[in-house]
Every structure is written in structure tokens, then in C-alpha cells.
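Final report, section 2: Outcomes. Of the targets proposed, Retrovirus-related Pol polyprotein from transposon 412 is the one most frequently requested by collaborating groups, and we therefore present its record in full.
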Amino acid sequence: MAEPSKHTSRLFLLDRKSGQKFLIDSGSEISVIPPSPTMNKSPQSNFSLFAANNTKIPAYGMVRKELNLGLRRPFIWTFIIADVSSPIIGADFLKHFNLLIDLKKKRLVDVETSLFTSCVFSNIVQHSILTVDVNISFKNILSEYPDLRNPSLISKSASHGTIHHIITTGPPVTARPRRLQPKLYDAVKVEFEFLLAQRIIRPSKSPWSYPLHVVPKSDSTVRPVGDYRQLNSVTERFLPKAAEQQYLLSEFLKGSKGKKDSKPLNWSSEAITAFQRCKQALADAALLAHPSPSAQLALHVDASDYAIGGALHQVVDSKLQPLAFFSRKLTSSEKSYSAYDRELLAIYSAIRHFRYMLEARDFTVFTDHKPLTYAFRQKVTRSDNIAADVLSRVSAITFPSQIDYDCIAETQQTDQELHTLIASGTSLELKRSPLSSFQEPSQRFDHVHLDLIGPLPPSNGYTYCLTMIDRFSKWPEAQPLKDITAETVAEAFFSSWVSRFETPAILTTDRGRQVEFLLFKALSKLLGVQKCRTTGYHPQANGMIEELPIEKCNQMPCY
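The predicted structure is given below as C-alpha cells.
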């Protein structure tokens, strides 16, 4: 490749976010950016960049940047930090985002959206950036297979149609979001937007989540780290007796101060054996069978001095097929149990763990502790089990009362003195308060009933309705409201009724907080309106206005 002249006119594009001008160079195999003035320029040996004239270009690392090219979508890309005079958008960037260079019209065209952004020509001395030395013997092979030099982060999905499903127990494990420093937040945001654009991650609505921890790298970038320990602790275990095998290794974690703990471990021969057993268990992990609804279930349990475990099998053609495994360490108090109690605890814990599969199914429990088998075979005679026998035969439980209510009622009916005392008008006589009645108005719009209904389905921003009706003429009015504050109700009543039909003499309302507010009371006093409140929790006292919405709903289908 020939070296360009010192007055070559090149196409430049402005990044509206950072204000930098990027050189559009399809001859450069990768995208690069010059180092910042404050950066520690220490060349890294894992980068080998060459100019078009075969001179080696020092590289200092990578940085992820988000560009705003004016094409209405984000462009997040990993740039190589190299010793160049200006930032370069190379062929890898153009290929990934499907961008075309239009030199005639001085623009960059986005094929996916058919949008374009304008570029400018400028004179610059800049060689194209190559990742392969032009003099090496296998240059043609690397040119034929460019993915070997610029591997894509997007892995090709396998076409096997298999979906991995993790069986979990208990409520979902979730963690509250952690606040990050503004500087770390910006870096993590760019990192995740890049992973999202590369289709390495995707948005999820799963209730399972883990906390995010950000670790700074030596090259001033960040590494997002997920804490999966709590999440993995509730997943189904596929290894039989895993807790027993990992017991010695788990003991090393007691009193640990984290990864900075420099306390030496007693890596004994027993610990080495336990570690080898754990590795072998992973290598020999049993292949679980697909559950059959009609198969007989068998639950094998066992207990040791420091752990309990169980294995759920199904019997198909007289053969045991494993379905799932369960194991856990014993607590300090459970270790003091007798062998009988530990074996019984193993049965209880295994049945409780596999309850979702054992419920409403016949199953057999297998244990190597023979005394447990007699616990379910012992027969107790009726003479030795009197209390339970009696309680099992009780059809109804009643407690005799010392008061004969029927006799008391009959005596009250025949007691002449009691009837005379009740009829004499004493305080023992039940007296009902007489019902009051509304005074009928003498003219229209003299007595108005008012009520609020809602919330209703939104319509043009209105969700409530103020209903009013004249007691004399039965003339109804309804005014839509956006809210039911005292100010809104008072304004609606004044503008829709008082301004059109004059001020009423009596206004009947319920005990709603809107009409009991000081503002509404002040309006009533200013207009000279006598307020009449209904009884609490008694809508019949204002039945005329309460039945208005029902009548209107019944009339609507007729129109």
C-alpha cells in the first residue's frame, strides 16, 4: 500500500457529544483514538498495530466510547488507544453499524435507518491503521479470513433447540440497587449500553437479581462484577451428598475476613481428598431423568455426623432413575442429635424439600437406619390409647348451659306484673325516634341537592362529576371535574348553577370533606345559603341525588 501524500484531503465527522473530529477511514482495519494528555503512556505487548508504510504504531490499551453522530441512535464502540494524530473510525466500526461512505456528497449514510450525517474534507497526514505487518508471509491468509484479526463479541447461537431451565425453591432472591459514584456510573452505563448493543445482554423483568459491584482496572477502565453467591445458594443441587463432600472445605470459611485474609490454611490430606471428591463429583454428575407423572417415586435419605442428604428417584421398568438431589450441613445443635433423630431429620427435611414433587403422590422412603422402620409399624391397643380413641369417635362437641333460656322466655310471657310495668311508660319501654321529613320548597331552584361521583374512566382529563338537582322541579345538572378539591367543587357549583339559576336558599349535601372545607363554608355564608347535612353512613337521607347516576345509566341505552 502506497504512502499517502502530505496534502491528502480526508473525510472527517464531528462527534456531537465530545466535540472531537473523527477521520472516516475504511482502509483502517480498526478504530483508534489518541491518548489523553494525562494518560500514562506505557505500550502494551498484546497490541501490534502497523501503519500503511509498515511502521509500527505504539498502542496503550482500549477505551469504550459512546459517539453521537447525529443519526438518532447510539454508537458505542471499543477504540484502541494508539499514537495517532486524530481519532479514526475504521472498517470494523463501519461494518458493525452498517454505515456507508458517500464521498461525492460528503456524508455518512446509515443503511438501517436511511438517515445521513454531513462530513467535511480536511487535509491531514495520516496513514491507515493495520493489524498485520504487510511483509509477513501469511498476510494473504489473514486477509481472506478477517475474523481471525477482528473477532466479533457476538457469539453465534447454536441451532439445537435446547433451553436450559434452572429449578429454584423458595421466594426469588433479589437485591436493592446500589448507588454508584457519578464517575463510575457514567463508565458502567457506557459498558452496559455497549453489551446491550452487542446483544451480549438483554433487558429482563425477572424477579431474580444480584447486586452489582464495580472494580476499577489498572488502565482506568471498570469491570462490572456480579455477586452470584446468594443467587446460587437457592438453586437445585444436582450432586448427591454435596454438603457432606464439601464439609471440610466449608470449614475453612469460618472466621474468614474475605479475600484479603492472609491466614494460612491447614491443607491436610483430608482436605485434598475432599477437594478431589468434589471435582470427581462434578465430572461424574448424574444425568437426571424427565419426571413421569405415573411412575412410582422413591426417596432415599441418609444422615452422617455433620450433614444430611436425600435423592429422589422414579421407578421405570424396575430401574431407578434420578430426578433430583438434596443435601445440607447440620447446625451445631443438630450435630448433638442422636443417630435416630438425625435420620428422622433427614426424612423430614428431604420430604419438605421435595414437597412440590411428592405432594398428592404415593412414594416410598428408603433409609439405612432400621429402628426408624418400626416407628410406623407399632400398634397401640385401644385400652392404652383411651384419649385419642375417645376424641376420634366424637361426632359433635357441646357444652351444657346452666341457663334455661326457653324457661325464662315462657316465664316472661306469663308474668303479668312485667307486662304492666312495660306498658306504664317507664324508661324500660323501647321508643323509636320519629323520622323527620324535608320541608317541600315553594318555588323552583329554592332547595338544591349536591353530590360527587367518581373516580370514573378518564375522558379528556376529567375523572369526577359534580351532580346537582332541584328538589322542586327535579331539574338535574352534571359538571365534569378533573379533581375533587374544595376549590374545584366550589368553583364548579358557582359557575354552573349559581350563575345560571340564582342562589338556592337551602343546599343539602353529605358529610364529604370537600363540602365541609372552610372555603366551601365561606362561599355558602357569603351567598346566604343554609347548608343541610345528611346523617353519616345513611345515603337514604339524600336519595334524590344518590339515585340520579343510576337513572342516567338506565336511560343511556334508550338513546
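Residues 205 and 339 are 46 Å apart (CA to CA).
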